[in-house]
Write a structure and sequence with these properties.
Blueprint (H helix, E strand, L loop, with lengths): L12 H6 L1 H23 L3 E2 L5 E2 L13 E4 L2 E5 L4 H7 L5 E9 L15 E10 L3 H22 L1 H7 L7 H4 L7 E3 H10 L12 H10 L4 E4 L22 E6 L4 E8 L4 H10 L8 H9 L4 E7 H9 L20
Parallel strand pairs: 1-5, 7-8
Antiparallel strand pairs: 2-4, 3-4, 5-6, 6-11, 8-9, 9-10, 10-11
Helix pairs in contact: 2-4, 2-5, 2-11
The protein binds adenosine monophosphate and magnesium ion.
The site of adenosine monophosphate (AMP) has 18 residues, from β6, β10, β11 and α11.
């Protein structure tokens, strides 16, 4: 990757949309979504159309602000993620996915990370009865199928973008599971490499970049500490303070593509976790009523579609992976 963190901005909408670079990237993205969809439909998943607004949304935090809208005199939110609805959807079907839009007013300082948009999409998957490892296997299968399909069908687009398909050889030649490293071990690696890191938090972007650059193939970081995630990531019953969750990190410095987890599904546990994470249970009335009546145990994950496109297409900035970029703080159509 050339200038990963160089600030860059899209041209006008006609300039952006008519550019051969944009068109190649969007064709690649199309193949990625198609590959993911085909794989899941073959495995018996049902695709649902995701909600865009609701009385509450994912409180995951991570520094981004939520957007309020007026819903007939009630304050509603645009979805920062559809996590609550993913759990609800399992009341209809055991295996579901959405292609879901998310709006997050990310902090201004993320405008030039090359990896943040204020509006983006997730390929959102949830599986009843599945474990952390089950979900990771599906995530690996999707990423592998997407990369394989792009390499097979998008040779001239990759060439226009200057993305060498050989970069994917370690991934495509892999026979077993992607490597897994625990959050604790990742921390120790970073400290050894001279990077200070808060042990109770998500790995910061710089630290994640260091780990990502060291690798030539996607890998998982698993078992994040409790302080780092929302109330819905399940705490390990045998290892309090440790969550049964994971991120998939792309190689070559591209960083996080996916976050996923086993979910909390027990009413009392969810209330306790809400309190611990500073969430007011009263806000979550519809969700908690549903949980009290019973929802399945599950695992799931969300793939950032623009992030995955960025990695596959070899782009310096994630805004190049969308037809209508919304960079944090940049007023744009
Ligand atoms: P999260 O649950 O916050 O980890 O979000 C799920 C996935 O969505 C991440 O793994 C990223 O791939 C993607 N994502 C999250 N925030 C952004 C953003 N601001 N811009 C683009 N993609 C994002
Ligand atoms: Mg994440």
């Amino acid at each position: 990757m050339s200038s990963q963190f160089a600030p860059s901005r899209p041209g006008t909408p006609p300039e952006h949309l008519k550019s051969p670079v944009t068109q190649s990237v969007l064709r690649i993205q199309n193949q990625i979504v198609q590959a993911a969809r085909e794989l899941l439909l073959e495995q018996g998943f049902v695709e649902l159309l995701p909600p865009i607004i609701g009385p509450v949304t994912d409180p995951g935090g991570r520094g981004a602000k939520q957007v309020d809208i007026d819903f007939y005199g009630n304050r509603y939110k645009l979805m920062t993620s559809a996590i609550l609805y993913k759990q609800a959807s399992l009341l209809a079907f055991d295996k579901i996915f959405y292609v879901a839009p998310n709006v997050r007013l990310e902090p201004l300082e993320t405008a030039d990370t090359g990896r943040h948009l204020a509006e983006f999409h997730q390929f959102d998957v949830e599986i009843a009865g599945a474990s952390q490892q089950d979900a990771m296997r599906v995530a690996q299968d999707i990423v592998t199928a997407a990369v394989a399909r792009v390499v097979r069908t998008m040779g001239s687009e990759l060439e226009i973008l200057g993305r060498d398909p050989d970069a994917f050889a370690p991934l495509l030649n892999k026979t077993g599971a992607f490597e897994q490293i625990s959050h604790t071990d990742a921390m120790e690696d970073l400290v050894r490499l001279g990077h200070e890191q808060n042990h109770d938090a998500e790995i910061d972007w710089e630290g994640e970049g260091i780990l990502s650059h060291k690798s030539d193939s996607p890998f998982f970081i698993i078992d994040y500490p409790k302080g780092s995630r929302g109330f819905y990531d399940r705490e390990d019953p045998e290892r309090p303070e440790v969550l049964r969750n994971f991120d998939l990190i792309a190689p070559e410095g591209y960083g996080e593509l996916i976050s996923g987890s086993e979910r909390e599904y027990d009413y009392a546990r969810i209330i306790a976790r809400m309190r611990e994470t500073g969430e007011n249970p009263a806000k979550y009335e519809w969700y908690l009523k549903m949980v009290r009546d019973g929802i399945p145990s599950s695992s799931g994950f969300g793939i950032g579609i623009e992030r995955l496109t960025r990695y596959v297409a070899g782009l310096d900035s994630v805004w190049k992976a969308t037809a209508f970029p919304k960079i944090p703080g940049v007023v744009s159509p």
